[in-house]
Amino acid sequence: xxxxxxxxxxxxxxxxxxxxxxxxxxxxxxxxxxxxxxxxxxxxxxxxxxxxxxxxxxxxxxxxx
Length: 65
Ligand code: SF4
Prior knowledge:
The protein is an alpha+beta fold. The protein has two helices and four strands, in the order βαββαβ. Helices cover 22% and strands 22% of the residues. The strands form two sheets. Strands 1-4 form a two-stranded antiparallel sheet. Strands 2-3 form a two-stranded antiparallel ribbon.
């Protein structure tokens, strides 16, 4: 499972960082999401799935490896 980020759609709401701080970070320059780890070793952690569901701009998705 791979975590996919569309930074162009990100509005910097930080729901993802709050849900999974080990997976997502926020850029200090533009406030948009940064991916700490694209391929979690044991699949997408629960926090990442929550972040995908909560992201208000639809900037996050999960894909196959
Ligand atoms: S929750 Fe969505 S809009 Fe908010 S920072 Fe994360 S990717 Fe961007």
